[in-house]
Write a structure and sequence with these properties.
The protein is of the alpha+beta class. The strands form four sheets. Strands 3, 4, 5, 7, 8, 9, 14, 15 and 16 form a nine-stranded mixed beta sheet that branches. A three-stranded antiparallel beta sheet has the order 10-11-12, with no helix packed on it. Strands 1-2 form a two-stranded antiparallel sheet. Helix 1 packs across helix 2, helix 1 runs parallel beside helix 8 and helix 2 packs across helix 3. It contains eight helices and 16 strands. The chain has one domain. It is globular and about 70 Å long.
């Protein structure tokens, strides 16, 4: 079963940064977004340099139980493990567009925002959310954060309260016809002819990890590539001991395995035990 530590080690062992030209067999990624998604998929499945298509497909199928797309989140589910959401930014300081999905520490099988295929890909009720945030410059991946949602996402009630207040307020507007929707609201027949509808969607944004966690890690402009993994200590300790021993025994320039204190997303003056893995070259 793959995990964040395996992905960290696989990246170090198979380092490459030109995501635009990532290939699997003869299939070349057509754009930066697809290149980043391929890179993330490959580091967890250890298929970065796999040239045999059939072997690559086999390893990917063993690693993942679900793959979504921009219309059917999440992006990936590690088999019997975490959910991965992939986000690309083109400036190290730009915010991340989450669109209609607010930040999440976990994802639940009963969520109305996921598909039946996602819900039934395996037996599960809830999974930890892992965000993969890649900063790209031209055709180069400059940095990749792998950070768990519970390191920066508040409890879901914080976001649901805002969402529900807006949605309920919209539904109190007089003399309009509403229809059931997964969005904030949908108004039918706005005009006298009854030919105009209005969709009301939330567009969530959040700061990217380079800014959120600047108190833990400072982006180094001199480096060609930086991989930063952040998780709570409890999560780190739950991972296989052989993987923890492997990463802690790495003797590679630019690798650090650090104990850190992470600000609680629900109470910033409270500090929580975390683990930070860094590779920079």
């Amino acid at each position: 079963m793959s995990n964040i530590i395996k992905a960290f080690i696989n990246t170090i062992n198979n380092y490459q940064v030109n995501i635009q030209n990532l290939t699997r067999g003869n299939n070349r990624a057509n754009n930066m977004g697809e290149g980043l998604e391929s890179f993330v998929k490959d580091i967890f499945a250890n298929t970065i340099n796999e040239k045999n298509n059939q072997q690559s497909f086999k390893l990917l199928a063993e690693t993942y139980s679900y793959q979504g797309n921009k219309n059917n989140p999440p992006d990936l589910i590690l088999r019997n493990s975490d959910v991965i959401e992939i986000k690309k930014i083109e400036s190290k300081n730009s915010a991340i567009a989450l669109n209609s999905s607010y930040p999440k520490a976990k994802i639940y099988a009963d969520s109305p925002m996921i598909t039946r295929a996602c819900r039934e890909c395996e037996e599960w009720s809830e999974k930890d959310m892992l965000y993969a945030v890649g900063y790209t410059k031209k055709s180069t991946l400059k940095s990749l954060w792998l950070v768990y949602g519970d390191c920066f996402c508040a409890e879901k009630e914080t976001y649901e309260r805002i969402k529900d207040t807006i949605s309920n307020g919209i539904n109190t507007i007089a003399d309009v016809e509403f229809t059931e929707t997964k969005e904030l609201g949908k108004v039918k027949k706005v005009d006298p002819l009854g030919i105009t509808d209005l969709r009301i969607r939330g567009m969530w944004h959040i700061e990217n990890p380079n800014k959120i966690f600047s108190y833990l890690y400072e982006y180094d402009e001199r480096k060609d590539f930086q991989l930063i993994c952040l998780m709570m200590r409890e999560k780190y300790d739950s991972l296989p001991s052989e993987d923890r021993e492997a990463v802690e025994s790495l003797d590679v320039d630019g690798v650090e395995v650090l104990d850190v204190k992470v600000k609680s997303p629900d109470n910033p003056v409270k500090l929580m035990d975390g683990k930070l893995l860094v590779f920079r070259v």
